[in-house]
């Protein structure tokens, strides 16, 4: 990968990480009234309206092959967000996002070819055990939702690359978000009547930052980088999540949780960096 492309992808993913975690913090404030599941769906619905208005996608110009990737992207996106919101309702934001990061992290482990790369997997697993241990006070149901979100996140990383390389990728992402909103409609439609002005405003802000800005950045970065490099850059999310959780949500983490997070993020970043470096050497990139 060329240096310019690497810098652009890194900068784009940093914006994505900050936007995503800001969105999570905003959404968390709506759980008391809307609940995590309706909040996730309503955020998607608001984002779908925004993105379709901005990009004006034309479904007639999408090929059957492209539709397959877009539909899969939308479904994975919907399930990932539902699980993640259940996780952040039960866990500190930094811990939930770290478990979510295990998805692209695991993808990097699966794609690993050298023993040094594969040795990072046990380190990440040990980190999860530390975070889920009794000493960290972590809700195991929340851990389960976080791991499920991570599984979907792995699919998201792969599909983001495919959709990001399509013609007019942002309009394709808008279609995927619309599919995610439609797929979850039965879960959020009834909650519309229970929203007040403050909750609606928070969800719209969360939709803008966490979906419109974040998913657009993901698609742009995915068009310039490999799945392994994207997995590495997603390692920014847990760090930003921990900072946002501590700063705006006043969430504190004990030593075991912090060490566990560091082990998961460190292992994921290490294996992705080694794979990206190996790919760059093999293709003559810098």
TrEMBL record:
The keyword rRNA processing does not apply. The keyword rRNA-binding does not apply. It holds the Pfam family EamA. The chain crosses the membrane at residues 67-87, 93-112, 141-159, 171-189, 195-215, 227-249, 255-276. GO terms for cellular component: membrane. Its main location: membrane. Keywords: Membrane, Transmembrane, Transmembrane helix. It is a multi-pass membrane protein. It is found in: Membrane. Belongs to the EamA transporter family. PANTHER family: EAMA DOMAIN-CONTAINING PROTEIN, INNER MEMBRANE TRANSPORTER. This is EamA family transporter. It comes from Tsukamurella sputi.
